[in-house]
Amino acid sequence: MEIKSPALSTLNRMEWHIQHRVLHGIYRTRQDVPEEVYRLATLYEGLLPHGQGWNLPATWIKNHSPRGSPLRVLLGDAEYLIVYPRGDLQTKKHELLHAEYAMNPDYRAQVRTDWLSLTSSQQQRVHQVLLSLGYPNDPELLLDEYQAYAATERPSFFGIHKGHKGQRNKTKRK
Ligand SMILES: [Zn+2]
Q1: pLDDT tens digits for range 85-103
Q2: CA 163 → CA 59, 113, 158, distances in Å?
Q3: Is the pLDDT of residue 48 over 60?
Q4: DSSP for residue 30
Q5: Are 163 and 150 in contact (CB under 8 A)?
Q6: What SS3 state is found at 17?
Q7: What does the pLDDT average to over 117-134?
Q8: Residue 51 Cα, ligand 1 centroid: separation in angstroms?
Q9: Mean pLDDT value across the chain
């Protein structure tokens, strides 16, 4: 969508659209990502020195950003925000899975079943990997990251031999 209001101009260097109640923010270079997105994302999941994708529930944004802030105006009645680099389908898919996890109770239940099927040492291993990427030690947030990485990364990502499909081998925070 095109942003006309000058108050929204800080968001203007990115491309925005809402699809299925998810606001997508697409950037070309990290410098185009507005400070407000970094601020909120850091509050949500800790400092992200090497992040390239971000995900935020709309409720979180509304609780941590003043009414009338550019991002809130843009959000409208969307329920979730995802931000990713243009052309990076892997990161887009990862962030979309966070939206799915937040918005679809059936999917959430499925993820929980999957998680409970892991042995406790497998669960510990998953937590170790995610903590080493810098995520905060919050079991609910880690479960959300687990499902997004498990569905998009190579089977060896967590080193627990679960046989998930995926093709990426670099390890970047998302
Ligand atoms: Zn993520």
Answers
A1: 999 999 999 999 999 999 9
A2: 34, 16, 11
A3: yes
A4: G
A5: no
A6: strand
A7: 95
A8: 9
A9: 89
**Cα-to-centroid distance, 55 and ligand 1 (Å):** 7
Q: Give the percent of the chain with pLDDT over 90.
A: 73
Task: Supply 154's token pair.
Answer: 């190579």
Do residues 77 and 126 share a domain?
Answer: no
The reply to whether 12 and 75 lie within a common domain is yes
Query: Would you report the helix, strand and coil content of the chain in percent, each value rounded to 5?
Result: 50, 15, 35
Distance 98 CA to ligand 1 centre (A): 7
Q: Angle at which helices 120-132 and 139-152 pack, to 10 degrees? A: 90
For residue 69, the CA-to-ligand 1 centroid distance in Å is 24
Q: Are 61 and 121 part of one and the same domain?
A: no
Instruction: Please check whether residue 169 lies inside any domain of the structure.
Output: no
Task: Tell me the pTM.
Answer: 0.87
- For residue 8, report the distance from its CA to the centre of ligand 1, in Å: 26
Q: DSSP H helical segments within the chain, as ranges?
A: 35-45, 58-64, 70-75, 89-103, 105-116, 120-132, 139-152
Q: Is residue 114 domain-shared with residue 141, that is, in the same domain?
A: yes
Task: Name the domain boundary from 88, 117, 149.
Answer: 88
Does the residue 170 lie in any domain? no
